[in-house]
Design a protein that fits this description.
Length: 107
Amino acid sequence: MAITLTESAATRVKDHLARRGSGLGIRLGVKRTGCSGWAYVVDYADDTREGDVVFEDQQVRVYVDPQHLRLIDGTEVDFVKQGLNEAFRFRNPNVKGECGCGESFSV
């Protein structure tokens, strides 16, 4: 079981945590939404929650609810800038399909 970050994603998270001045890392999860069923949720992790699974990659901690882990286990988180657009991108080996806009996925 693992969640990994590219160098670009790790740098982005570290920069934002430093500017924010607090936080343990990021919290990665999913929520039901969109036309394919699931969407990624990324937020700051300000505390640990009972049962959290914690991964550390490139000096960044990633906190995951164990119920979400089965859907995102093995995911690599990247951060991409394209022109004026910038966003986290997810390479999830569990994905069976994605919606046309790329906002949701199915497993």
